[in-house]
Amino acid sequence: MRYLCLYRPGTPESDDPQCHEEIAAMGELIDEMQRAGVLLATEGCLSSSKGVRVRLDTGKYIVTDGPFPETKELIAGFCLMQVRTKAEAIEWGKRFLAVARGGETEIRQLYETPAA
Fold first, then answer.
1. What H or E segment, with its residue span, contains residue 95?
2. What is the pLDDT of residues 3-62, one digit of tens each?
3. Which of 2, 40, 67, 82 would give a disulfide with 110, using CB separation of 3.0 to 4.6 Å?
4. Confidence tier at 102 by pLDDT (50, 70, 90)
5. 34-71 in b/e burial notation, b at 16+ Cβ within 10 A?
6. 112 secondary structure, DSSP code
């Protein structure tokens, strides 16, 4: 089963670079996930000040440039993983949050097209 994990940091955005220890710890977790064969893709997002939201409302497109003030809605990164169970996805999500020092990860199973 494939799961998409969306990470929301829970703290205001900052353009300050992460400290060396945080980067190293995340690198170790990513390496472990690769060795376990569960990591399909992962990336962090740049600050929302470099982003844009596009919305369709009553037939009209609304384009809003960042930054976006609502911290609880910001996505700071994602992980795509292939695991055997939902419980396994949750465990990897917990480990990620421990390394990230908090926040929230929304874990969503992806639709699998049945083999013909």
1. helix 86-100
2. 999 999 887 777 666 778 888 999 999 999 999 999 999 999 988 999 999 999 999 999
3. 2
4. confident
5. eeeebbeebeeeeebeeeeeeeeeeeeeeeeeeebeee
6. -
Which residue pairs from 15-19 have beta carbons closer than 8 angstroms and sit at least 24 positions apart in sequence?
A: 15/47, 15/49
C-alpha closest to that of 49 among 83, 21, 82, 76: 76
Nearest to 17 by CA among 42, 43, 41, 47: 47
Q: Considering all CA atoms of the chain, what is the largest pairwise distance in Å, rounded to the nearest integer?
A: 49
Task: Output the CATH code of domain 2-109.
Answer: 3.30.70.1060
Q: What is the mean pLDDT of residues 96-114?
A: 92
102 touches 37 (CB < 8 A):
no
